[in-house]
Amino acid sequence: MDVVRSHKELRVWQLAMQLAKDVYKLTEQFPKKEEFRMTSQIVRAAVSIPANIAEGNARGTRRDYANFVSIARGSAAELETLLLLAKDIGLASEEAFHTVLEQTGEIGRMLNGLRRSLSPSNASTTNS
To answer: Is 14 exposed, middle or buried (0-12, 13-18, 19+ CB in 10 A)?
Structure first.
């Protein structure tokens, strides 16, 4: 497996950055009264995904990297839960949530794969 020198080279990081931008656009549609409630939590969870991928990649050990990828996975699960709740309570149209929910699922699957590649049983590979 090729060595990844920068988190910016990771497809999962690139997709997570796009997701964060799309979440910002989505939450602009939410009612103003949600600014410090659901909107804030949703945006924080979305931003946390690429941020933790980047931080983990910058760490010096596979163990640290794997830990931050796990945190990013947790943020993706949190984001999915918050988006489903926001959709269910009608903060925006169901169609508005469709793309970001699909992106969140794809990123979650990619993070699972990245996490597996960092496990001790895959120690012969380097910084995926």
So the answer is: middle
Tell whether the model's pLDDT for residue 42 goes beyond 90.
yes
Token pair 């497996």 is found at 1
Task: Indicate the pTM of the whole model.
Answer: 0.89
- Contact 99/18 with Cβ under 8 angstroms? no
Residues 6+ apart with CB under 8 A from 54: 7, 13
CA pair distance 21, 47, nearest whole angstrom? 9
What count of other Cβ atoms lies within 10 Å of the Cβ of residue 112?
14
Map 39-77 to HEC letters: HHHHHHHHHHHHHHHHHHHHCCCHHHHHHHHHHHHHHHH
**Sign of the alpha-carbon torsion through 117, 123, 124, 126:** positive
The whole-angstrom distance between residue 60's C-alpha and the CA centroid of its chain comes to 21
Of 114, 82, 118, give the one whose Cα is nearest residue 101: 82
